[in-house]
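Help needed: design a sequence for this.
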């Protein structure tokens, strides 16, 4: 049986997102949920970066193109916030790219756009 990577940390983040969803519900855009998550992370003393920038390297050179992830939490988890009808394969690919560029192992796609909060763990 394999162990869940960053189990406690990821459940804590999902719990914060559930609190946000219970308070705001669905219907807002991602920026609103992002602002609420930032308040929750701050009030709980969780270290984070908002709009974390990740360079992309090719054969040792840093490319001009880079990625911005919604958040980087505790220097190890990338929560990618969505407010869409359903999480799709494009969202998963986007999160995998963030993980590859950042050398992180876990991404959480959190969707506030459904009738209840949904999320997907993405592991690199």
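Sure. Designed sequence:
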């Amino acid at each position: 049986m394999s162990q869940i990577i960053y189990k406690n940390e990821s459940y804590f983040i999902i719990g914060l997102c559930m609190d946000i969803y219970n308070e705001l519900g669905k219907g807002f855009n991602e920026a609103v949920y992002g602002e609420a998550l930032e308040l929750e992370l701050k009030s709980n003393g969780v270290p984070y970066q908002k709009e974390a920038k990740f360079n992309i390297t090719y054969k040792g050179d840093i490319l001009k193109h880079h990625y911005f992830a919604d958040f980087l939490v505790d220097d190890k988890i990338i929560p990618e916030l969505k407010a869409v009808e359903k999480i799709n394969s494009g969202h998963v690919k986007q999160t995998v790219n963030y993980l590859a560029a950042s050398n992180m192992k876990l991404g959480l796609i959190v969707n506030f756009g459904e009738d209840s909060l949904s999320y997907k763990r993405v592991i690199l």
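The chain has a mean pLDDT of 95.
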